[in-house]
Amino acid sequence: MNRPVHVLVVGSGIFGVWTALELLRRGARVTLLDAWGAGHARSSSGGDTRIIRATYGSHAIYTRMARRALERWQAYESQWQAGLLQQTGAVWLVGEDSRFADASAATLAAEGLPFEEVSLRDAARRYPQMAFEGVARVWIEPQAGYLFARRACAHVAARFMAEGGTCRVAAAASPVSMDADGVLLTDGGVVSADHFVFACGPWLGDLFPDIVGDNVRPTRQEVYYFGTPAGDARFLHGALPVWLESGPRFIYGVPAGDGRGFKVADDSAGPVMDPTSDERVPTVEGISAARAYLATRFPALQDAPLLGAEVCQYEATPDSHFIIDRHPADARVWIVGGGSGHGFKMGPVVGDMAAAAVLGEAAPDPAFALARFAAPPPAGWAAKWS
User: Could you list the residue range(s) of the whole structural domain that residue 48 is in?
Assistant: First the structure.
């Protein structure tokens, strides 16, 4: 009798859990392995929330993927009522350089997705809790919103197990060591399978130093949660959308409403960090910068108390494109990652693409190929867009 193909997926961040679930639903036997469990605090998929939006300038490939991803998250919500997706819309604040917004508007229009420019006067009327000093143009993306990140990883992993998948807490040896039997674990054991998918986010460079190396760079990113005034609903997700400001620095945030607080974060790439051993304590400088931003853009929150902070990381590639490709020296092994700070929302689509590639149903997009890293990355590179 024919036995099902066995696939080991290493890493249960959002790319890993969705890849595992898609493989399982295609008839494979799947084992999902992670060093600390789905959505853990060290992963790029940890933390509370991630924005979902389709604005990508002229990068139509990601606009299309974001549209498909939103459809998948909506379908998942409809079936499981998990409370993972909040479609608040998004308000984009643009300075004098509006090239990204203009390119996004053209791409979204070509793809049949709404993206509306509103006057500063209308924006101030709609969002009186915001100040628009230094803002030249304002755009509204009505289908955008945010996802609950850690909860989503845990929920998709739970669905994977409920449908017959197997989860293990264990770690692959670093660098990856493969033999005829399978992949070596840090405890000396070996896991055998027909195919191996490594969706290990910021650890990919250490796991595959000769293939990935510095082409996936973990950068330290601080996120802050501030308390809103008691009884003041202006900063909750029913009254305020997610917001993104494209200026000298790319600043974004998520309204309060889940008990965590009002989220503020700087998208600029931080210093390189070790995702395993570095401590995750916010800096005084980062907190001060976030407070200064609040004073300018949300004046009523300028004295808001800091309720908490997260130190997470991006897993950035030099061009900010994902990696979905077969290992050039071992046909059993696939590498999936490079979320680059914008990948979380794409989990369902990346999982679908990776599963199809592993099982030979479709070739991955060349934009995500490892071959583009034939030359080493330039010194001091930073992701170009997110």
Answer: 6-373
